[in-house]
Amino acid sequence: MADVATLRGVKVMIIDDSNTIRRSAEIFLVQAGCQVVLAEDGFDALAKIADHQPDVIFCDIMMPRLDGYQTCALIKKNARFKSTPVIMLSSKDGLFDRARGRMVGSDQYLTKPFTKDSLLHTVAIFAPGQAS
Question: Does position 18 have pLDDT exceeding 80, yes or no?
Answer without folding.
Answer: yes
